[in-house]
Amino acid sequence: HNNKSRRPADGMVTYRVEVGKSHGAEAKNIVGAIANEAGIDSQYIGRIQINDDHSTVDMPDGMPKDLFQQLRRVRVKEQALNISLQTSTSDDNFRPPHPHRRGDKPRGDNKG
User: Considering the entire predicted model, what is its pTM?
Assistant: First the structure.
């Protein structure tokens, strides 16, 4: 049941940035860089987890491609963010992949 806390909030996705503790970065550095360089209000920046060699940042899904490219070049502590989409932070990647997507909410097309 604590799996939920590891997933981003609704409408948010987890991005990975290649800067972390070993570079001397703190959450406020990353928030500041993203907010200043990309013009994203800090209220739209969700949970940040700082790891040794990288960090993860929750931000709104559907980021425009040009903004994404811009963020890749942003530097924190002389280290380019080189942002990428975090594929999975949960245990899903230890299970064999399923041909059909699981966890999709039913659309309510077939009532009855």
Answer: 0.70
Percent of the chain with pLDDT over 90: 52
Q: pLDDT by residue (tens digit) across 27-40? A: 999 999 999 988 88
SS3 of 75, please?
strand
Residue 99 CB partners (closer than 8 Å, separation 6+): none
pLDDT digits (tens, 9 = 90+) for 62-102: 888 998 899 999 999 999 999 999 876 454 444 445 555 55
What is the residue type of 87? Answer: T
Instruction: Work out the burial of residue 15: count CB atoms within 10 Å of its CB; fewer than 13 is exposed, 13-18 middle, 19 or more buried.
Output: buried
Question: Pairing between strand 79-80 and 75-76?
Answer: antiparallel
The Cα 101–Cα 78 span in angstroms is: 40
Tokens matching residue 62: 């559907």
Containing 71, the helix (H) or strand (E) segment is helix 65-73
Assess contact for 86 and 16: CB atoms under 8 A: yes
